[in-house]
């Protein structure tokens, strides 16, 4: 919290901050930081009021999601985040400062804490459960869903979980996550949707899904899962130790045998490298930190390494480690990291 520059936050960004949410949702608990912050920056009073309205307005809203509504919800979330002006832009363009709260609510839903979902689950009423979470670049997060399933969300990822009126558990994932799905006595299905024509259906198992980049990669650690690809009539089943790569562009896919630990080591804070190239390093740095690697000499792409190293969630430290492995040097310009020969 101390590292966040809240002076640059918009209303929806502030409402997505978990410490701010706790302050708003628990007014009976004294929060010295936020009380002092509001007193120190009185010019932010309107912004704080908008963010507070967002948190309170969506805390216990009942989101019953039909198939078409799911698509519309995420479209609103993504567009709301992409189009929202920065604080400086809002000051320069006052007409956009008063966006409808509904649009802000769509954007903030991606970062709302688990409290709303727990509320619905613990009431005992037959109504949909909504849990959503997101991670920023350089951050991972472990979640326990209302059904006791555990999800570890990798950096720069978003997740939405619901239980529909048929008691079917559904997740919408944009990014990468490891799932340890709880088998229920009622055999409730658990489906992970990737929004790229690939669904993963399970009852109880451990698996990893990565939908970032040009491919979707699904790796099964234990149990058995069924994949529905591009709405094809025939389903594809995976056994432990199998992986499928699905090409988002042309719809092609391939199934191979792999060591699952190589693809799930990230959840334990380890980067496993097997014939690992700077191209692979570029994918890693983009996913985890939002940084773009620019390799000045194409010959460097031919160098491959194998081994493992700890994942340090600091881009400079991580690049220092990778530079030692590949025997290169680097310099950073904003979100671009230039790689050169030593």
TrEMBL record:
Name of the protein in question: FecR family protein
Keyword set for this entry? Membrane, Transmembrane, Transmembrane helix
Q: Which residues form the FecR protein domain?
A: 134-225
| Top-rank taxon, per record | Bacteria
Lineage of the source organism?
Bacteria, Pseudomonadati, Bacteroidota, Chitinophagia, Chitinophagales
Do the record's keywords include Transmembrane helix? yes
Regions that span the bilayer: 101-121
Pfam annotation, one family: FecR
Family matches, as Gene3D superfamilies: 2.60.120.1440, 3.55.50.30
Q: Which InterPro entries match?
A: FecR, Ferrdict_sens_TM
KW Transmembrane (keyword) present: yes
């Amino acid at each position: 919290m101390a590292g966040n520059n809240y002076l640059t936050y918009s209303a929806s960004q502030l409402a997505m901050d978990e410490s701010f949410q706790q302050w708003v949702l628990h007014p009976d608990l004294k929060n010295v930081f936020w009380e002092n912050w509001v007193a120190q920056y009185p010019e932010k009073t309107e912004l704080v009021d908008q963010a507070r309205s967002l948190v309170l307005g969506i805390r216990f809203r009942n989101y019953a999601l039909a198939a078409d509504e799911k698509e519309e919800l995420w479209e609103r979330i993504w567009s709301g985040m992409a189009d929202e002006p920065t604080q400086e832009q809002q000051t320069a363009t006052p007409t956009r400062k008063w966006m409808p709260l509904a649009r802000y609510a769509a954007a903030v839903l991606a970062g709302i804490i688990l409290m709303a979902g727990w509320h619905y689950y613990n009431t005992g009423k037959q109504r949909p459960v909504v849990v959503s979470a997101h991670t920023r670049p350089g951050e991972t997060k472990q979640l326990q869903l209302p059904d006791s399933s555990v999800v570890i969300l990798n950096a720069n990822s978003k997740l939405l979980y619901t239980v529909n009126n048929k008691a079917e558990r559904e997740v919408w994932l944009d990014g990468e996550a490891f799932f340890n799905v709880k088998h229920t006595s009622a055999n409730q299905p658990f489906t992970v949707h990737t929004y790229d024509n690939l669904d993963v259906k399970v009852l109880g198992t451990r698996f990893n899904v990565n939908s970032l980049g040009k491919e979707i990669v699904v790796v099964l650690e234990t149990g058995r899962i069924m994949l529905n690809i591009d709405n094809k009539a025939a389903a594809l089943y995976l056994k432990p130790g199998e992986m499928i790569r699905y090409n988002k562009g042309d719809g092609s896919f391939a199934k191979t045998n792999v060591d699952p630990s190589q693809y799930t080591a990230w959840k334990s804070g380890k980067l496993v490298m097997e014939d690992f190239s700077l191209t692979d390093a570029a994918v890693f740095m983009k996913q985890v930190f939002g940084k773009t690697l620019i390799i000045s000499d194409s010959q460097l792409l031919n160098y491959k390494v194998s081994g493992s190293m700890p994942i340090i969630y600091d881009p400079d430290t991580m690049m220092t480690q990778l530079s030692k492995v590949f025997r290169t040097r680097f310099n950073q310009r904003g979100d671009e990291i230039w790689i050169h020969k030593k």
